[in-house]
């Protein structure tokens, strides 16, 4: 199967990557034979004193580079996509959506409806949990991503309601998973109550 390729946009001068002759336009394919799903995998995998980095050059040639470094030393690589993955977008269709109400002609990125727990952790964005898979939840637990900011929005005959909730992290991954689970139950209950006009 073809490996996911991450296009390198910049190399930090004086870095390990420059020393290894990695250049902008090269692609990162794997570290220690692990495919890299997003920036969390990347940051996790480079935290070691010896790693093997698989790079693909623009002509298709692949270089397997052995790196000896300090445990937490950065490679000095910047990627075209900072998240190293597609941004997850919102699957909801709120009739009061604030993005749909934005005036036309503004910066294109302002119209993107993101709903991505990774951006919640990195930038403080709010997520609705409505597009999350088991895999996404497993990664929150695996990497102890905290806090995750959750936004609950609904409409009832009397108006709209928005609740913002910040999901904290526990050192125990099972407690983190339980918190996420109960948060989803809580949101389902709120949806049900709003639907039947209880609130
Ligand atoms: S969840 Fe937010 S971005 Fe998505 S449709 Fe509703 S208001 Fe718009």
Could you explain how this protein is built, in words?
The protein is an alpha+beta fold and 199 residues long. It has two domains: 6-79, PDZ domain (Pdz3 Domain, Roll), CATH 2.30.42; 108-195, no CATH class. Helices cover 25% and strands 25% of the residues. The protein has helices spanning 16-19, 39-45, 117-123, 134-142, 173-195, and strands spanning 6-11, 27-31, 34-35, 50-56, 62-68, 77-79, 126-127, 148-156, 159-167. The strands form two sheets. Strands 1, 2, 3, 4, 5 and 6 form a six-stranded antiparallel β-sheet that branches. It is elongated, with a radius of gyration of 21 Å. Bound molecules: iron/sulfur cluster. Residues 90, 92-94, 97-99, 113, 128, 153 line the site of iron/sulfur cluster. Iron/sulfur cluster binds at residues 90, 92-94, 97-99, 113, 128, 153.
Secondary structure topology:
Layout: E1 6-11, H1 16-19, E2 27-31, E3 34-35, H2 39-45, E4 50-56, E5 62-68, E6 77-79, H3 117-123, E7 126-127, H4 134-142, E8 148-156, E9 159-167, H5 173-195
Parallel strand pairs: 7-8
Antiparallel strand pairs: 1-2, 1-6, 2-3, 2-4, 4-5, 8-9
The protein binds iron/sulfur cluster.
Residues 90, 92-94, 97-99, 113, 128, 153 line the site of iron/sulfur cluster (SF4).
Helicity range:
25-40%
Q: Determine the strand fraction and express it as a percent band.
A: 25-35%
In this entry the ligands are: iron/sulfur cluster
Q: What is the 3D form?
A: elongated
Distance between the termini: 51 Å
Major beta-sheet overview: 6 strands, antiparallel
